[in-house]
Amino acid sequence: MNSELTVAVHCLLFLDSREDHMANSEQIACSVATHPARVRKVLSLLRRHDLVTTKEGAHGGYLLKAELSRVSLGDLYRIFAQGSLRPSWCSGSEHSSCAISSNIPAVMNEIYGGAERQVELYFDRLPLSEVKRLMEDSEYGKEEDSMSINNQDVWLFYAGSYAESGEPGIYLCELRRDTGEMRILHGFSDLVNPSFVAIDAKGLRLYAVSEQTEGRVAGFAIDPKDGTLAMLGGDKATLGADPCHLALQPGPERHLLVANYSSGHVNAFALEPDGAPGDMISHIRHEGSSVNEQRQESAHAHSAVPSLDGRFAFVSDLGTDQIVAYRLECGKLVKHGATDLPPGAGPRHFVIHPSERFAYGMNELNNTMTAYAFDPEEGRLEAIQHVSSLPDDFRGENYPADIHFSPDGRFVYGSNRGHDSIVRFRIDPKTGRLDDPAWTSAGGSWPRNFAVLDDYVLVANQYSGNIAALRRDSESGRLLPTEQSLRIAKPSCVEPLPAGLAAEMLK
């Protein structure tokens, strides 16, 4: 790992430990036992990214400007160490006569590239305040690492739902890992139809749509002590109808993407310093139709998913049978291209594999899941496979909905509304193709959204009004029904809290 990252973490933690949050470069260099010139280089970059500032005078130095809870290891990783895991392999070349030698560089760089993305995603979940706490735990000899999901007995998750004004719509819930039992901890009732919610990478902000004819979005601060929500400012109009999906752009630009189903609009909102949705930077309306006259009479933007580096956004349009790709340029959505689906497919939800070699989409109208080859540099997709989301012998009405990966990226899951099941596919790591489908009852009626944890899948069953807990075998990826169910009126979304923040709340 790049050692500048370690120095950067030390600099910020050292400044935080000072009573006045200030020190000069010599003091910091002495504390970290390195050369002052190296510390000054790191501090210069920290200053450029607005994490520290300087104070002149006899007692001047570097002053900590950012709150540790608002800075993640991922932020520092992108500044100081991104690319450090990609080695320059020299044990062979493409001209080598030995097949083993000539293939080592490409294969190893592919492995390390995927590992680096996993490191970045993990670091994004670790605010420096948590790093500080872990260091304090280590100092006092604590052996448990509460950041490890394997050591966590209770998981916390938020559930979004369809709710009228004044009714609870967003719930904080807990799942006991040993039994699968769930309970509601508290609810929030100031938003109509918060049908889709998303948590930022640090677990400190929650965003929700208000799915209604005059659509709105809202941001909330998550209290790290108990998970209660406080709205940040007021909600914002999307200037579109029935927003049904939102996502946060990764990286330093910080924009909120929203898909409005009924009107076909896509939005990008800037975020204020406190995380509240700010100015609307982009407001684009899709145009077009397709072969299903009842459902595809016009464009219907159903999800807006950013690429893992935040440079692109992919909008699944159910009405036009396209995945529309946009470049994100300072919040502006600039059309980059489109990938056509078979007529009548109705693309709904979309996910990019952690390896960034493949992507997958759930198609609502023709009961299929599509596998794509993905070029992350060019932001381009190519459909390579369409597979049925249903067993061959099913003849009823069905509408696929959501799609998610297993934590290790080996499996992809989709929900079937009508068949009322979760389908699991195995992903071929070389080709990205799907095989070995297996179906499990969703534990209720009309499974809309779901979340995949290490050994559970939590399913929001809208019509039966419950969240079902399914056991998951991490080796085979297969699911098993349980008797555990949580009653919530018209649940539509499940969003787990990062393990570290959940561990803090449960203390």
Give descriptors for this structure:
alpha+beta; globular; five-stranded antiparallel beta sheet; single chain
Descriptive overview:
There is one protein chain. By secondary structure, the protein is an alpha+beta fold. 18% of the residues lie in helices and 39% in strands. It is built from 7 helices and 33 strands. Strands 7, 8, 9, 10 and 11 form a 5-stranded antiparallel beta sheet that branches. Strands 28, 29, 30, 31 and 32 form a 5-stranded antiparallel beta sheet that branches. Helix 1 packs across helix 4, helix 2 (25-32) crosses helix 3 (36-48) and helix 4 (73-80) packs across helix 5 (99-124). The radius of gyration is 24 Å and the shape is globular. The model is unreliable at 87-96 and 140-149 (pLDDT under 50).
Question: How is this structure best summarized?
Answer:
By secondary structure, this protein is an alpha+beta fold. It has helices at 3-17, 25-32, 36-48, 73-80, 99-124, 128-139, 499-505, and strands spanning 22-23, 52-55, 61-64, 154-161, 170-176, 182-188, 197-199, 205-210, 216-222, 229-231, 236-237, 243-248, 255-260, 265-271, 277-285, 301-306, 312-317, 322-329, 332-340, 347-352, 358-363, 368-375, 380-388, 399-405, 411-417, 421-427, 434-441, 447-452, 456-461, 466-472, 479-480, 485-487, 491-496.
State the end-to-end distance. 32 Å
Number of helices: 7
Instruction: Kindly estimate the percentage of residues that lie in beta strands according to DSSP.
Output: 35-45%
- Biggest beta sheet summary: 5 strands, antiparallel
The chain-level structural class is alpha+beta
Shape descriptor reads globular
Specify the helix fraction band. 10-25%
Question: If you average the pLDDT, what whole number results?
Answer: 89
> Which stretches are poorly predicted, pLDDT < 50 over at least 5 residues?
87-96, 140-149
Q: Which radius of gyration do the C-alpha atoms yield?
A: 24 Å
What's the total count of β strands?
33
